[in-house]
Write a structure and sequence with these properties.
Order of helices and strands: EEHEEEEHE
Shape: globular
Strand order of the largest sheet: 5-4-6-3-2-1-7
Structural class: mainly beta
Number of strands: 7
Largest sheet: 7 strands, mixed
Helix content: under 10%
Strand content: 35-45%
């Protein structure tokens, strides 16, 4: 079965936050995450759900992480989490995390309390 791909948009200004985001909603997809992946291209990412914290063990590149509540409202932002040593805090008020190429948060201008919209992409 092919992974679900999503386009992620910011409802505040309709900007694209992620053009091709894979959804990781099974145990094994969440467990693997982006570990052992090469590098993300611009616009690529991974939406892990459910998830309330992340680590960067076995990662080869830095990422940005956007923590979302059940309504896809941004509750926390982490920029440039370093491979192997990066770690997010634990967030009780979130249900998922969007992992994106490092620099995406700054480039897209997302901020805490923005709401994101997930649109399925036809493959």
């Amino acid at each position: 079965m092919a992974a679900t791909l999503l386009k992620v948009l910011n409802n505040r200004d309709q900007s694209v936050v992620g053009a091709r985001v894979r959804q990781a909603d099974s145990f094994w997809a969440r467990f693997r995450g982006l570990m052992m992946t090469q590098e993300l291209a611009d616009g690529e990412g991974l939406l892990i759900s459910p998830c309330n914290s992340i680590h960067m063990m076995f990662m080869r590149f830095p990422i940005d992480a956007i923590f979302l509540d059940s309504g896809n409202c941004i509750r926390a932002l982490y920029e440039k989490l370093r491979p192997w040593t990066g770690l997010s805090g634990w967030h009780r008020d979130v249900s998922s995390v969007l992992e994106l190429k490092s620099g995406t948060i700054q480039k897209s201008g997302v901020r805490v309390n923005d709401t994101l919209r997930m649109e399925p992409i036809e493959c």
